[in-house]
Backbone:
C-alpha cells in the first residue's frame, strides 16, 4: 500500500526530467524532431519563389516545405542560417532553419539569383518597422558586436 503512494511522485519526477532533457537539446543528432515549429509551404518555379516574403519567430524552428514546380533545378539558400537545399524539378524537400534572433534573412536560389529568384524571411516583430522592445535596445542589424553607448 505505502509503496504505491511513494512510487507515484517518483515516477512523475522522472517523467518531468525526461521532458526537460528533450526540450533543451534541439541541435542534436538527426533524430525525428518534434513538430513544434512553424511550417511554411513554398513553391519554387522558373524563376521565383512563392511566397517570396515569409516570416517566423526567433528561437523557433521554421520548417520550409519546398516544391519545385519549375523545369530547372533550384536551391533554397539562406545566408546566415546555413540553409542550402537543392531541389530537382518536380521534387520536394524540407528545410528547417532556426533563427536565433530577430532580423531579415535573404533567401535565394544560387543558380538564378541574378534572374530575381530571391526573397526574404523576416524574423520577429510584426510587419515592417517594428521597434522591438523585448531585446536589448534593438538597433542591431548586421555585424553588430558593440554595445551602444
Ligand atoms: Cu533557381
Residues:
Amino acid at each position: 500500500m505505502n509503496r504505491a503512494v511513494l512510487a507515484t511522485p517518483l515516477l512523475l519526477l522522472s517523467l518531468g526530467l525526461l521532458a526537460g532533457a528533450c526540450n533543451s537539446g534541439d541541435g542534436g543528432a538527426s533524430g525525428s524532431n518534434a513538430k513544434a515549429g512553424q511550417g511554411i509551404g513554398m513553391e519554387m518555379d522558373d524563376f521565383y519563389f512563392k511566397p517570396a516574403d515569409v516570416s517566423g519567430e526567433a528561437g523557433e524552428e521554421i520548417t520550409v516545405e519546398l516544391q519545385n514546380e519549375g523545369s530547372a533545378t533550384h536551391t533554397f539558400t539562406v545566408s546566415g542560417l546555413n540553409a542550402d537545399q537543392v531541389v530537382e524539378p518536380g521534387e520536394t524537400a524540407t528545410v528547417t532553419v532556426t533563427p536565433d534572433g530577430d532580423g531579415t534573412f535573404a533567401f535565394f536560389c544560387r543558380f538564378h539569383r541574378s534572374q530575381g529568384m530571391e526573397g526574404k524571411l523576416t524574423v520577429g516583430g510584426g510587419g515592417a518597422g517594428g521597434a522591438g522592445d523585448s531585446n536589448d535596445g534593438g538597433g542591431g542589424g548586421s555585424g553588430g558586436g558593440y554595445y551602444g553607448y
Remarks:
- Residues 11-35, 127-149 have pLDDT under 50 and may be disordered.
